[in-house]
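Bench notes, afternoon.
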Amino acid sequence: MDISDPHCHTSSIAVRCSPETAFAYVSDGLRHGDWTLGSMDRKAVGDNLFTGTSMFDRSQAYIRLRTDPENLMVYADIGPSPDRLVPKNVIRVTPGINVGRGPNECLVTLMTWRTKGTADQVWLQTCSSHDTEMFIIKNRLERGS
């Protein structure tokens, strides 16, 4: 995998469903456990605050989701404890009609920023898993599960 941008990774996929359906799915903190390889087995522990377990090393992370329904965006603050959350990921749903596609299509995009000092191997794992997560999201949405 070529990592051309050492600071930010973006992964997108076209999905055959309404933008509203896609946004409802990616903004549901418990449903994130269906597709986030680094934060599976989600549990709600507070107001838009969740915990999840990494499929890779079994570590636990805390995640707070902040949603912007008007712009179809989800902000994920992630950290090792509720008091050490850092804005890390953004998910954007783009309506298909905005990019020359049909009204029952959309693009789902996941952006993440690399923290200074993150080892190359860890960054590569993050980028690879986000690319894979796009296919999981697509399949879940298109199969209605």
